UniProtKB/TrEMBL annotation:
It holds the Pfam family HemY_N. This is Putative enzyme of heme biosynthesis (HemY-like). InterPro entries: HemY_N, Mms48, TPR-like_helical_dom_sf. One of its GO terms (cellular component) is membrane. It comes from the Bacteria. Residues 27-133 form the HemY N-terminal domain. Keywords: Membrane, Transmembrane, Transmembrane helix. Coiled coil: none annotated. The chain crosses the membrane at residues 5-23, 35-60. The keyword Transmembrane applies. Its main location: membrane. The lineage of its organism: Bacteria, Pseudomonadati, Pseudomonadota, Alphaproteobacteria, Rhodospirillales.
Amino acid sequence: MFGRIVKYIVLLLVFVAIGVWFAENPGIVAVEWQGLIVEVPIGLALIAGLVVVAICAFLYRMWVFLRKSPQTFGHFRSERRNHKGYDALTKGMVAVAAGETTEARKHAKKAHDLLDDPSLTMLLSAQAAQLDGDEQAATRFFEDMSKTKGMEFLGLRGLLNQASARGDMDEALELAQQAYRLKPKTQWLAQSLLELQLKKGQWAEAEATLSSSIKHKLVDAKEGARQKAALMVERAGLASAEGLNDQAIKLLGQALKQDGGLVPAALEQAKLLGKANKRRKAISLIEEVWRKNPHPDLYALYQEMQSEPDALKRVNLAEKLAGQNRKHIESRIIIARAALEAQLWGEARDELKVLLVEAPSSRVFALMAELVETENNDLSGAREWLRKATQAQADPAWVCHTCGDVSADWSAVCPKCHGFDTKAWQTPSQANVETAGALEEEKSTIVEAELVEPAAKSTAAQ
């Protein structure tokens, strides 16, 4: 603003200076044309010249304005249409959010008619159609979006949601793969694709998706490693079923590198190593995993592979394995169990005393029942311990931390809720009391039968 004022002042001073100069230096401008001579003072001639220039400039501007007026008017109309179109688009989105079906479709149509770019209205039209329950119309809009540059991902997402809603897993998987190729760093999409691959049992493909998610930091590295290990165990199961034991052993080894305490991987690899006449390697593997994560199934396989008929030597084997993690509950339990089988009552009692204080559970009470019955032939005392066993804290099992499903066997995917990597070896909570109760009842029957059998033999001997 200040600069313009200075400019006008300078121009005014220039004109004043010119006027003063001509006033001090008067003269005449003469023009002769066809015998006619016109004489005009120099100042007046200059003013006339300026007027002519001004008129010419005005006429030129008028000509330019008239020439461009159709474009200007068209641009003005276009701006008004776009403004109304965007207004309709906004109102339509608000109507969708509010669940107003009629308003949403009305504004979607208005926006489509007013806006030149149909991609802006496709999503609104599709959502309005879905709100109205017209899935076929919504599908058409989503398909159009999937073929429109810049809108492909939104279209595929809409089609994916529709396929998932109607339970078409094959279609959903194909659409998820297409969308994933466009945006592999989208977390919800990577998770959806992984879940679909898991439902189809595509373990190798799921592992590739998981690896990509870890690479793009969509999944925590530690969690991702554990999940990759679970997938490798499932892949190994398929390979083993097809007779590809070497491949299965390799996959299980990779799984244990990802998660060194994964008991299912260790169990399966040890079994396959045993079949391949690599018993010493299998035994060494069990001992190594016991250091990290003792598990009763590892002990059962350990004893099976030793094939030791002598009960006292089996105690030595139990002590050797337990020595890898001596203070763990499972280590004390396997020593107590082996000692009972060898009729080493004192050693069994020493371990059970510690367990009764540190970790009283159904198994511990059942072992106490066996101890008092076999050592003293005290059936009444055994039944009292057995009663405590049925009322005690449930023994550990494979528990799904999502739905609470309790099972004796591990799986990468929960058979009940289909959650991935949700099974953990732990004591069932009160929420699982029904399922755990069924397991305890079955176990109680087994234990009671084991108690009655020696008593019957003792009576028969007498």
